[in-house]
Each structure stands twice: as structure tokens, then as C-alpha cells.
Design brief:
The protein has 17 helices and 17 strands. Helix 11 packs across helix 15. Bound molecules: adenosine-5'-diphosphate and 6-O-phosphono-alpha-D-glucopyranose (G6P).
Length: about 475
């Protein structure tokens, strides 16, 4: 098969330099976890940013970093502090991210950020063009690189280009707010195949294409003069067996081989038949609805006081985009809310919320997924949410309940979860009670359906469907040109 190169803002590993030693740290986030499992199948390179500013790197260190990354089939795009500030923190995370997640009040409209976005997208496109050889295909990912498809297509019209958006595409009425809306659409239309997690995002995108550009769209094909572009939805899956096997293995270990986290949980009687654990895992991001979740947990303890002392919320928030103002404010708000709930309902031997603001190793993640009775997933907007799927895969005994926001893309595939509106505190509080008293038979019935579905459409299936569609679009275009 032809090689497929991946292009995304962040590489699957970040570089960390400690005492002149280069360490590779796995990147957090759905794109990285998902693609990490599949990209080696395509024999191509992964082109992206290694996560640190290039200003302080001398030639020798840059060479060593590149060597280390080549061993992982990764090709770095180096970004300076200024580029990180204006393109990554700036246009990507202060303009597009809030716009696409319907946080219009947070959007920064700044021409300087836009200019940096264009020039850094060109940098990624140039690196991809340098890497391309005859017959190779390119698969570009996510909102930070919306202009790259067109930048590649304009230089190499014969290369097949795929693009997948990992976040929601907003409704036209929201998208039109942006001064650079046409340029973004134009950039995406450089791809031959454009993929979204859900049909709704696809529909919103097509509506923007029609209304802003006036192009004709029939079924899921966009017709532009001499080209046909395919648009489709591909709900991203997870590496199901990896989570299931890790969970099985961890629980077979004797106590002395269990991790410190697990032993701590047991020591504080958190893993015991008389205690229930609720799990919350996200990047610290305002789209994830973390404050809503804490308010709902507080309301739950107020409305169902029989659970005080018996239920603990384990909340893992992974630091993310910590130099952007809204993320700094969010962290402060969450810290305060955790303090408020613990102050109100806690006692010497009861801490209602166990809060971790850090990244945890994969093993601990699995322990949390498999030890917690309920997963509370309440984003106010989320393209997909892989955490919900990972929880399902890790439940080897098929018990456990998911409370899931209707605003997450994953809700479309998880009708057996308890579906809530993330802005309805009372509804979430009642859902927590419902989850905690749900009979085991009902839990198993719901969970088995979820497991069958999530297992069937895993990340390998997802990527192979996308690649199949790329081949299909090549064929459609060839027959179109032949006419
Ligand atoms: P997003 O992509 O917006 O961050 P997702 O829920 O889709 O949200 O994906 C988050 C991914 O990050 C999951 O695959 C999850 O396993 C991973 N992750 C979350 N927390 C951690 C952590 N503490 N350490 C390692 N990986 C994590
Ligand atoms: C989401 C985005 C990814 C991004 C990830 C982590 O999953 O869709 O593109 O990589 O968040 O965010 P970060 O800004 O740290 O790369």
C-alpha cells in the first residue's frame, strides 16, 4: 500500500529535556491517543510540533532531538516562542477553539494572530511537501491546520489529501461570526476527503460551504469546477483491546505488585463494598464542563445526604494550555469549587472530592477506569470524548454506569448511558443517584451493549474506513476527469 503521512499540530510524543537528557513523553488528547495506535500501519511519517519552543535549542541539541524523533517515524516542525504564542495559544486556542465549541464570548479577533496562523500553516505544509514522495498520501488532522489541505493541493494537485476534524464544526450562524470564515473553508476544501466525528458536524460544514461559497453539494459530494470533494462522518474509536487487556492484567496482579495509587485507594477504604467511586477525567478545559460537574456533585450530596461519607468523586484534570487566560481562570474556579465542596461535606475521615491536577501514567488511568463505579462525563461541548469509550472498554466485568452529556459527539453512539444536559445541575444530581442505585443486572445489560458497539467500531476500523473513503474519492475523481 502507498505510504500515508500524518500531519497534526502536536506529535504523539512531546520532547522534555532534563539535565541534557532528551525524554519522550506521550501526548495527551484524543487525536494523539487515537492516531498513536494506527499510524505505524501506514508506513509514513508523522509530521508535527514536538511541544517545546525552538528558541533555546542549539544546532547540536536540535540534531539529537531530530534523531530521537526519526526513531519514532516522526518529523518535527519547530516553532519559536512567538509562533507558539500567536499561532498555537493565539489563533488556534483563543479564536478557533472557542468559536467551534460555541464559546463566542472568549473569541479573540486579532489580525496579528491570523497572520501567524497563515504563516505557521504554511510551515507545516512545506514540511509535508518536503517529506512527500511519488504516490504518497497525506492525512491532515484538526483545527490548528485548517489551511494546510489547500496549501498542499495548490502545489501538488495530484497528491490525495485527507482531512479529519477532531472537534465539533459549529452551526453556520456561529461560524459566520469569524472574519476569516471563507479563508478557513477554502483551506479545508483543498482536501479530497473531509471527515467529521458526527453527521451533525458534517451537516453544519456543508451548510457553511453552500452559504459562504455557493458551491453545489449533492449527497456528500461537493462539486467545484474541476474537482469533487467527499465529505463524510467517521466517529473515532479507541484501541479497545489495549484498554480491555490492560485492565484484565492489572486486576490479576497480587496486592504487592499493585501501584501506589491502587494501594492508597485501598488504604483509605475507597475500594470497598461500602464505598462508591465516581470518576471524572479530562484535560483542564472549559469545554469539558468541570465546574458544572462539581456543582452537580455538591447538589447530589445535598439532595441525597444518605450518600455523604459513602461516595467519593475522583477528579483527574490534566494541565492543558495553561498560558491562555480562560484556562488560568478555569483552574482557579475549579480549585475553589473543590475546596468549597470538601469544606461543606467533608470530615476528618471523609474527603468528598479527590482532586489531581496532573497527568497520570497509563497504568493509573486504567486502574481508575476499572475501580470506579460511575463515570461522570459532562462536557458542555465535545467533538467526541474518548474517555467515555475508554471507561467502557476497561470494565472487564461489564458493570459500571456512564453519565454522559448530550453535547458530546460520543452520545450518539451511547444510548445506553444515562444522558444528561450538562447545564442542568438537578438532572445530573438525580442521574448520580440513579447510577449509584442501579441494579447490577441492569448495569451489565447496558454495559454489554456499549461494549459490543465500541469494540466493533474501534480505532482501527475508524482509520481503515477513512482510508477506504480516500481510495474511493480517488476513483470518483479519476472517472470525473475521464469524462
Ligand atoms: P480531548 O481530546 O479533548 O482531550 P478525549 O476524551 O477525546 O478529549 O481524549 C482525551 C485522551 O487523553 C484520552 O484518550 C485519555 O486516555 C487521554 N488522557 C486523559 N487524561 C490522561 C492522563 N492523565 N494521562 C494520560 N492520558 C490521559
Ligand atoms: C484536543 C484536540 C487536539 C489536541 C488535544 C490536546 O484533543 O482536538 O488537537 O492535541 O486536544 O491539546 P493540546 O493543545 O495540548 O495539543
Amino acid at each position: 500500500m502507498n505510504r500515508i503521512h500524518i500531519v497534526s499540530n502536536r506529535l504523539p510524543v512531546n520532547i522534555n529535556i532534563e539535565n541534557d537528557i532528551i525524554e519522550l513523553i506521550p501526548s495527551v488528547g484524543g487525536l494523539a491517543t487515537g492516531m498513536r495506535s494506527v499510524y505505524k500501519e501506514y508506513n509514513g511519517k508523522w509530521i508535527g510540533w514536538p511541544g517545546l519552543p525552538s528558541d533555546d535549542l542549539d544546532e547540536e541539541l536540535t540534531g539529537r532531538i531530530e534523531q530521537k524523533l526519526i526513531e519514532e517515524d516522526c518529523v518535527p516542525v519547530h516553532l519559536s516562542k512567538q509562533e507558539i504564542d500567536l499561532y498555537y495559544d493565539g489563533f488556534s486556542n483563543r479564536t478557533i477553539w472557542p468559536l467551534f465549541h460555541y464559546f463566542a464570548q472568549f473569541i479573540d479577533y486579532d489580525h496579528e494572530l491570523w497572520d501567524a496562523f497563515v504563516s505557521v500553516n504554511q510551515k507545516f505544509a512545506d514540511k509535508a511537501l518536503e517529506t512527500l514522495e511519488e504516490g504518497d498520501t497525506i492525512w491532515i488532522h484538526d483545527y490548528q491546520l485548517l489551511l494546510v489541505p489547500e496549501m498542499i493541493k495548490s502545489k501538488k494537485p495530484d497528491v490525495t489529501v485527507g482531512f479529519f476534524l477532531h472537534i465539533p464544526f459549529p452551526s453556520f450562524e456561529v461560524f459566520r461570526i469569524l472574519p476569516w470564515r471563507k479563508e478557513l473553508i477554502q483551506g479545508m476544501l483543498g482536501a479530497d476527503l473531509i471527515g467529521f466525528h458526527t453527521f451533525d458536524y458534517q451537516r453544519h460544514f456543508c451548510s457553511s460551504v453552500r452559504r459562504l461559497m455557493g458551491y453545489e453539494i449533492s449527497f456528500n459530494q461537493i462539486h467545484i469546477e474541476d474537482r469533487i470533494i467527499l465529505v463524510d462522518s467517521f466517529p473515532m474509536g479507541i484501541d479497545y483491546n489495549k484498554f480491555r487487556d490492560a485492565s484484565t492484567q492489572i486486576f490479576q496482579r497480587p496486592l504487592q505488585e499493585k501501584s501506589e495509587l491502587h494501594r492508597e485507594l485501598e488504604k483509605y477504604f475507597l475500594i470497598s463494598p461500602n464505598r462508591k467511586l465516581i470518576l471524572s477525567i479530562d484535560r483542564m478545559d472549559y469545554s469539558k464542563g468541570i465546574p458544572n460537574r462539581l456543582r452537580a456533585f455538591s447538589r447530589f450530596l445535598e439532595d441525597y445526604p444518605e450518600f455523604i461519607g459513602k461516595v467519593t468523586l475522583i477528579m483527574l484534570a490534566v494541565p492543558s494550555r495553561g498560558t491562555v487566560e480562560q484556562y488560568i481562570n478555569l483552574k482557579r474556579e475549579v480549585d475553589e469549587l473543590v475546596g468549597t465542596v470538601n469544606g461543606k461535606f467533608g470530615s476528618i475521615n471523609y474527603t468528598p472530592v479527590w482532586y489531581f491536577y496532573r497527568s497520570l501514567p497509563f497504568e493509573n488511568l486504567i486502574e481508575l477506569y476499572s475501580s470506579c463505579d460511575v463515570a461522570l462525563v459532562t462536557p458542555v461541548r465535545d467533538g467526541m470524548n474518548l474517555v467515555a469509550k475508554e471507561y467502557v472498554a476497561s470494565r472487564t466485568n461489564s458493570t459500571g454506569v456512564i453519565i454522559l452529556s448530550e453535547m458530546a459527539g460520543v452520545a450518539k453512539e451511547m444510548g445506553e448511558a444515562i444522558i444528561i444536559n450538562p447545564n442542568n445541575t438537578k438532572e445530573i444530581a438525580d442521574a448520580i443517584n440513579q447510577a449509584l442505585i442501579m441494579p447490577l443486572d441492569e448495569q451489565r445489560e447496558r454495559m454489554s451493549f456499549l461494549q459490543d458497539r465500541i469494540k466493533r467500531y474501534d480505532v482501527f476500523k475508524w482509520s481503515s474506513e477513512f482510508v477506504k473513503s480516500l481510495k474511493k474519492v480517488e476513483k470518483i475523481q479519476n472517472s470525473f476527469y475521464a469524462k
